[in-house]
Design a protein that fits this description.
35% of the residues lie in helices and 24% in strands. By secondary structure, it is of the alpha/beta class. The structure holds flavin-adenine dinucleotide (FAD). The site of flavin-adenine dinucleotide (FAD) has 36 residues, from α1, β2, β3, β9 and β12.
């Protein structure tokens, strides 16, 4: 029941649920353009972000207005770089370029490593900086408040939905109030709490499940620099291991991040056990855990629409994540920047209909989203192969610097004819395996091409046709 508290008549032009990188960046970009914005976040302000550093795409950070550090003697340096695990600077000093890729069975490494377009970024500091910028821009921040349900006409099909705001409850139980808004945004992350409640719109409300989810852990450990010289501490990914991947990233002289993630499924290995094994094999890594944790990671695809009248989704809630790594911070920020310009224009024109918000879909699906969608086919292939098969492909140079650089950086770039012929020669003893790869690349290419034909304006019939074909293509992926 809506109570009578002073917040009960709150009205904003835009109401965003979720203060992750997607919600905060979108909020501050709109607010600096003079648009009134509220952000509703169920967590505490102090608890925002992961208690560790994540690999975040450098381009996305730069586009979001973060100054990237300079490189001095092969390491990041300058005022934005951390001196220790505990300080509140943004970036870890270690520069990973190239990234060494080891085969899942650890029998070989990929020649030349891969291009690594990420920088290891402290998620607590990132959250804090985004909150500061949002607050400075005039965003109204409601921490410890939960978005409960969308308001307006929310029962119908995609064309009939008209969202007019969100019902919010205080997490301390002190009451409930409604926020009215021209545009209401779901930025609640993997749970996609608001988007999923739009029961009559399957193109919008789909739940992430099955092979679209992974489980990952990070453990930042104290390192004994005295023993480090004798240990194998090279930054690397053990890519394709246990239907996921594992890594070590040295942060500082005396600290290292050991982590990994695997496909979420019954009977999966616990990444913490593999991490333990990695630590045991490296005596310089001590038992002292400095930071770390774990959780569910999205490695799936966007629903076919991210918008309805008065509504949009961004970030994990919109499936804007690289499926071949589970890295979603860059996608969340890119998605937020893309949505910001379109929502701003719609609000200023006074038309927040699905037609006005449709460019969010068009720009995403025909651009970056087409790469991420096609990479779902590549990820699906990787998860279906054994350690031995992936290792064979790496040994023979069929999975190589070029193909893995694309996949790890979220770019779908399948081999051309020359490279396929070379692969056929190198893998001649395993025709069945080559066939599986060719099939995955063909399917990825079909998905990619189809996404490039995403309807450029809201036309219900054209969208239904597009979504039907896309649905059929994805039936062959998951
Ligand atoms: C162990 C682990 C390791 C990862 N490593 C990386 C990495 O190295 N690089 C990378 O790019 N990504 C990584 N990710 C993924 C990354 O964290 C997400 O892709 C990213 O945070 C998505 O941002 P977002 O803003 O969409 O959602 P989130 O960051 O999930 O933010 C959503 C916010 O919404 C709030 N919320 C949820 N429900 C409600 C509600 N009903 N009302 C109000 N608020 C609500 C939540 O409290 C949360 O603060 C990792 C994830 C995990 C779990």
């Amino acid at each position: 029941m809506v109570n009578d508290n002073p917040k009960s008549k709150t009205t904003y032009r835009v109401a965003i649920s979720g203060a992750g990188p997607a919600g905060l960046l979108l909020a501050l970009k709109l607010a600096v353009q003079g648009i009134s914005v509220a952000v509703i976040e169920s967590g505490d302000e102090a608890a925002l972000g992961h208690d560790w550093s994540d690999a975040v795409e450098k381009d996305a950070l730069a586009s979001a207005g973060f100054e990237l550090p300079e490189v001095v003697s092969g390491r990041y340096a300058g005022r934005t770089v951390k001196h220790s695990e505990q300080d509140d600077n943004l970036f870890e000093p270690h520069r990973i370029e190239p990234l060494e890729i080891r085969s899942p069975d650890l029998s070989c490494t990929v020649a030349g490593g891969v291009e690594f377009r990420y920088i290891t970024t402290d998620r607590k500091t990132l959250a804090r900086r985004l909150v500061e910028r949002a607050r400075d821009a005039g965003v109204a921040l409601f921490f410890r408040h939960r978005a409960e349900m969308l308001l307006g006409d929310t029962e119908g099909s995609l064309e009939n939905i008209r969202v007019s705001g969100v019902r919010v409850s205080a997490c301390d139980g002190s009451g409930t109030f409604d926020v009215s808004a021209d545009v209401t945004v779901d930025a609640t992350g993997i749970a996609s709490r608001l988007r999923r409640s739009l029961a009559g719109a399957p193109a919008l409300n789909r739940k992430f499940s099955g092979s679209e989810l992974a489980y990952a852990c990070r453990s930042v450990r104290r390192l004994d620099p005295g023993k480090a010289r004798e240990d194998d501490l090279t930054d690397h990914y053990r890519y394709g291991a246990y239907r996921g991947y594992f890594w070590t990233h040295r942060h500082h002289e005396d600290s290292i991040d050991v982590g990994g993630g695997v496909r979420e499924e019954p009977g999966r290995v616990d990444p913490a056990d593999i991490i333990d094994e990695m630590i045991q094999n490296r005596p310089s890594i001590t038992r002292e855990v400095i930071r770390g944790g774990g959780g569910s990671v999205l490695v799936g695809r966007s629903p076919f629409s991210l918008v309805a009248s008065g509504f949009s989704a961004v970030g994990d809630a919109a499936g804007q994540v690289i499926p071949t790594t589970g890295c979603g911070v860059g996608g969340a920020m890119t998605g937020a920047l893309l949505a910001a310009g379109i929502i701003e224009a719609a609000v200023k024109r006074g038309d927040c209909s699905i037609k006005a918000l449709w460019p969010v879909n068009y720009v995403w699906f025909s651009g970056r989203g087409s790469h991420f969608a096609a990479l779902c086919a590549v990820k699906d292939l990787l998860q279906a192969l054994s350690h031995e098969e992936i290792s064979f492909l790496m040994k023979k140079g069929i999975m190589n610097r070029r193909t893995l650089s694309s996949a790890i950086n979220g770019v779908f770039d399948p081999p051309g004819t020359g490279e396929s012929l070379r692969a056929a020669g190198a893998g001649i003893t395993r025709p069945g395996l080559l066939l599986k790869i060719a099939r995955a690349n063909r399917l990825g290419a079909k998905i990619f091409r189809h996404y490039r034909t995403y309807p450029d304006r809201w036309d219900p019939a054209a969208f239904v046709r597009w979504a039907e074909t896309a649905g059929k293509l994805f039936q062959r992926v998951f």
